[in-house]
Automatic annotation (TrEMBL):
<keyword id="KW-0689">Ribosomal protein</keyword>
<dbReference type="Pfam" id="PF00281">
    <property type="entry name" value="Ribosomal_L5"/>
</dbReference>
<feature type="domain" description="Large ribosomal subunit protein uL5 N-terminal">
    <location>
        <begin position="182"/>
        <end position="237"/>
    </location>
</feature>
<dbReference type="InterPro" id="IPR031309">
    <property type="entry name" value="Ribosomal_uL5_C"/>
</dbReference>
<feature type="domain" description="Large ribosomal subunit protein uL5 C-terminal">
    <location>
        <begin position="243"/>
        <end position="341"/>
    </location>
</feature>
<feature type="compositionally biased region" description="Basic and acidic residues">
    <location>
        <begin position="58"/>
        <end position="76"/>
    </location>
</feature>
<protein>
    <recommendedName>
        <fullName>Ribosomal protein L5</fullName>
    </recommendedName>
</protein>
<dbReference type="InterPro" id="IPR002132">
    <property type="entry name" value="Ribosomal_uL5"/>
</dbReference>
<dbReference type="InterPro" id="IPR031310">
    <property type="entry name" value="Ribosomal_uL5_N"/>
</dbReference>
<keyword id="KW-0687">Ribonucleoprotein</keyword>
<feature type="region of interest" description="Disordered">
    <location>
        <begin position="58"/>
        <end position="111"/>
    </location>
</feature>
<feature type="region of interest" description="Disordered">
    <location>
        <begin position="1"/>
        <end position="22"/>
    </location>
</feature>
<comment type="similarity">
    <text>Belongs to the universal ribosomal protein uL5 family.</text>
</comment>
<dbReference type="InterPro" id="IPR022803">
    <property type="entry name" value="Ribosomal_uL5_dom_sf"/>
</dbReference>
<dbReference type="Pfam" id="PF00673">
    <property type="entry name" value="Ribosomal_L5_C"/>
</dbReference>
Length: 347
């Protein structure tokens, strides 16, 4: 029988005289197509002929009946994991899970992005600030007496005995005391407030439109239109006019905006000295401003700078709110982030 599909090695075995003799069944796979193989190589039925399972054919059991037939009850809540209710500090052996964990009590979906400046703060800046501000006190060192800031009432009548103390004389504002920095109160970024003021919007409302567009472009937050609180005769502004826009950024948006200002806007300003050292409100919040010609250094504005009326682009005032209790600690945080200061530094 002539075999076409048999390889050369099989031909050599068949030519040799041996006790093994191939049978018809063993050579049926190698026979020609005309001989007709005993075992088909291709399925006769298609996979599309599989019956479609419909919802009517599925039996759904009532969950109450299934629970009633269950022999063993599920473990009660006391056997399940519960995160600790209180955060006892980073050195405590029992730590609560992060807020991104669904088991956490303060579960918040995310984080969906991690700003570079925020990651640098947690990995480098926070530990550096804690190291720079460390002051060693040997055991037994007496505490410094606290400065008396409130005035006591007289003891003329018994009604003054449990009365709260009075503030200082005059219009002096009681600012928060500057505590020693430890791992509980390392200064961090809290929020960034950006505001634009255009008195020309009294005559031309298009200034408001341009300011809102630029503000939303550089911040990613829909701005709010502000109104004047007092009338200014020199600018022909009446109380209640729409003359500005403002926006507030918190969390990751604040870190991303400040990172953009520090590493993209400030280096492009010619002969920029830095932030003035006397800025601050005494409570750890610092502010600085940008001129109208400096707004083009934002990458979002620079990409479409020709789309904005050049004479209508306003400047802005950036107010950075931190968790620091004094301007000195806030400047320490800003300096670590890359913002220089010039001039006299006011504590």
């Amino acid at each position: 029988m002539a075999l076409r599909g048999v390889p050369r090695s099989a031909h050599q075995l068949l030519k040799q005289q041996s006790a093994w003799k191939p049978s018809v069944a063993s050579l049926s796979r190698c026979a020609s197509t005309e001989a007709g193989p005993a075992v088909p190589d291709v399925e006769t039925e298609s996979g599309l002929m599989t019956p479609v399972v419909e919802r009517k054919g599925i039996s759904i059991m009532d969950p109450r009946k299934r629970a009633s037939r269950r022999e063993h009850e599920l473990p009660h809540s006391r056997y399940r994991y519960h995160p600790p209710k209180y955060d006892r500090g980073p050195l405590h052996p029992i730590q609560p899970p992060p807020s991104s964990d669904p088991v956490a009590r303060n579960f918040t979906p995310g984080p969906f992005n991690l700003p570079r400046l925020k990651q640098t703060y947690h990995s480098t800046i926070a530990s550096d600030i804690l190291t720079l501000t460390y002051q060693h006190k040997p055991p037994g060192t007496p505490e410094k007496p606290e400065r008396i800031r409130f005035r006591t009432w007289g003891d003329e009548t018994p009604y003054m005995e449990n009365r709260p103390k009075r503030g200082p004389r005059g219009a002096e504002v009681l600012l928060p005391l500057e505590p020693d920095l430890n791992y509980h109160n390392i200064p961090a970024l809290k929020a960034v407030h950006v505001a634009m003021y255009m008195p020309q919007a009294k005559k031309n409302p298009d200034h408001i439109t341009v300011a809102k567009t630029i503000m939303q472009t550089i911040s990613g937050v829909r701005p709010t239109v502000t109104h004047t609180r007092q009338s200014v005769a020199q600018w022909s502004v009446v109380k209640g006019d729409r003359t500005g826009v403002k926006v507030t950024m918190q969390g990751n948006q604040a870190y991303e905006f400040l990172d953009k200002v520090i590493h993209l806007v400030f280096p492009k300003i010619k002969e920029w000295k830095g932030v003035k050292g006397t800025t601050g409100d005494g409570a750890g919040n610092l502010a600085f401003g940008l001129e109208p010609q400096e707004m083009m250094h934002f990458p979002e504005v620079e990409a479409n700078y020709s789309s904005y009326p050049q004479k209508m682009i306003p400047g802005c005032r950036i107010f950075v709110e931190t968790t620091a209790k004094s301007d000195r600690h806030a400047r320490l945080l800003f300096g670590a982030m890359g913002i220089p200061f010039y001039g006299k530094l006011v504590d």
